[in-house]
Amino acid sequence: MLIPYLWSVLAIPLVNQIRVEPFGVPFLELWMMAGVLVSSVCVAIVYQIDKRRRVNE
Question: Which domain of life is it from (predicted)?
């Protein structure tokens, strides 16, 4: 679960310097919305791994 942490905490200072506004939305806001999706995918992957381990035990 290191990816969501890196995405939302460590990358923010770098991403905050980008001044592009795709679709009229500040890039930082798009980055944070994408972070929600990335975090959800990471949690789903960990859940599936844990589920398989419980079945095998």
Answer: Bacteria
SS3 12: helix
Cβ(27)–Cβ(21) below 8 Å? yes
The contacts of residue 44 (CB under 8 Å, 6+ apart) are: none
Instruction: State the pTM of this model.
Output: 0.75
Domain containing 34: what range?
2-56
pLDDT digits (tens, 9 = 90+) for 4-17: 888 888 888 888 88
Residue 17 φ then ψ, to 5°: -85, -10
At 32, the amino acid letter reads M
In the chain, the number of structural domains is 1
